[in-house]
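Subgroup meeting minutes
Present: P.N., E.W., G.H.
Scribe: E.W.

1. P.N. recapped why we're keeping a running log of single-chain structure predictions: easier to compare across weeks, and new members can see raw inputs and outputs side by side.
2. G.H. added today's entry (215 aa).
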Amino acid sequence: MDLKFLKGKQYTFTMVAVFILACDQRSEKQLPVYNPSDLNPALVDKSMHGTDKNHTVSDFELINQNGKTITQNEYRDKIYVVDFFFTRCPSICPVMTGNMVKLQKTFLNNNEVMLLSISVTPEMDSVPVLREYADNKGALDSKWNITTGGKKHIYELARKSYFVVVEQGDGGLQDFMHTPNFILIDRKKQIRGIYNGTDDGEIQRLMGDIKILQN
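Output recorded in log:
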């Protein structure tokens, strides 16, 4: 038999084996489940320091860009990404929002994946302001809720559920110092990933991790 033919078959077999192994490794990749004890203590409410298991994000009641009340019911059995922002932020927020737009585009036709943005300045970000902001950014109502709500409620979500705000007080008018973090939540309301929402490489990692959760 032709030696070149045998070598060709061996090469093809090797490449197929490598591809199958790579697919198996991807399918076996597990994302961590984050608990308060895994995170920077500055982002975690003192009452939760040391909590090292069974953390899930709490129920919420927020108002979206259409004036509709949004609760966990809209996100039940969904994979979703959360960020905290405010519409007048001149620095990191425009970049973060631009990356949320990229996520919306990537998962546009995937009903399992949703987005949630929460304003840290609800006294300024009224429903009309959020509606204008959503229109300017091309946010789709069925995919992406851009929300406001009670300041103390938002503060508790930031400090006791999603861990994205450095402690500056108790939810008063001027005490939010939010991070650029995007938080990935799974269908069981667990935190499965934390990403720098201003970094393109981190956004690519987030997209990959969403696909892992889907599988």
